[in-house]
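Figure caption, in words: inputs first, then the predicted bound structure.
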Amino acid sequence: MNNVLVTGGAGFIGSNFVRHLLAARPGVRIVTYDLLTYAGSLENLRDLSDPARHVFVHGDICDRGAVDRVVAEHGVDTVVHFAAESHVDRSIVAPGEFVRTNVTGTFTLLEAARAAWAGRADVRFHHVSTDEVYGALAADAAPVTEHAAYAPRSPYAASKAASDHLVRAYATTYGLPVTISSCSNNYGPYQFPEKLVPLMIVHGALGKPLPVYGDGGQIRDWLHVDDHCAAILAIVERGRAGETYHVGGGNQPTNLEVVERLCALLDARYPGAAHAPHRSLIKHVADRPGHDRRYDLDFTKLQTELGWRPRHALADGLAATVAWYAGSGAWLAAVRDSDDYRRWIALNYDGRAVEVT
Ligand code: NAD
Ligand code: TYD
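Bound structure (thymidine-5'-diphosphate present):
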């Protein structure tokens, strides 16, 4: 691994991964390739200032010519593919962009890699995927292993499932050296405040309602983004080509419990706030259509084969995340000033407060 193409490196997990890889592997050069959609921002990469080790290229993963050029120009031998439309709620409102980016975009990257790397074994295409491809788990079902059947239920999950299938097909049909990681819900710095954790932190700090979908009894497995980045690096470097590895945190609070924990952290940080205690801001609103009740991955394979362990306890990780958002006013101001953010919040939250309990 010398020249790494990180697609979606200006987004939440991608930018954390770029930072992680630069620190962990001093010999590696990185090209971040990103379209800078609403979710991507150069603000997320602002502190990276060594052009000898990191360059940014603005481009679309669906643009084959541009992808070919960046792969050739930078002698790319490793692709770590994060670029995607990533928010389930947006996939319900506008699924077309999810098919374009997640399916056609992944296909375009695979074609570019196949053409550039014909016959090479010293290369790697790593695809970053999600636990959502398995669909909702029953309350008493065992955690899913890498052998479980796919059953995606949202347009986002279906588009990610389709891209996973394409990646595997390129391994079996063309011998492309691929790996896939399927990960649970991430939280941490630089996450766009449309997802549960940052949305609750930002709304809580502003004294706005904290919208919990339905009864809030849905279960996600929360993992700090640093742990995800370490897992991806281990898989890219030491994972077996053709294999899929699950990545999880082993934390299964309900959504309501996550929000309550965040409220307690906000109480501690802003004890004099007019709206304290923050839990008084919690509002149960109409549920997400087709809302998956529970996800839970078995990530034994990653632990036993590659020795990876999550290092961040959820309580510490959430506290650090609240502190990061509280201390990142300039970053947050840039996000909140964007037309897209204003539109999304106005459309989905400011007018949505439909109480169900
Ligand atoms: P994000 O929405 O924060 O970032 C996505 C990035 O992709 C943005 O920088 C955006 O500009 C870029 N992008 C979008 N369309 C593009 C295109 N056509 N060409 C080039 N760049 C484009 O997403 P994230 O939360 O960082 O997720 C990254 C990856 O990890 C995704 O593939 C997602 O499915 C997967 N994943 C996310 C989570 C999670 O909890 N966030 C969990 C498991 C897996
Ligand atoms: P989210 O962060 O959108 O991630 P995902 O849908 O990929 O799991 O949502 C996490 C959980 O939180 C999910 O069950 C939906 C719920 N949720 C709310 O209750 N309120 C919100 O405002 C958001 C954004 C999510």
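The longest helix spans residues 96-116.
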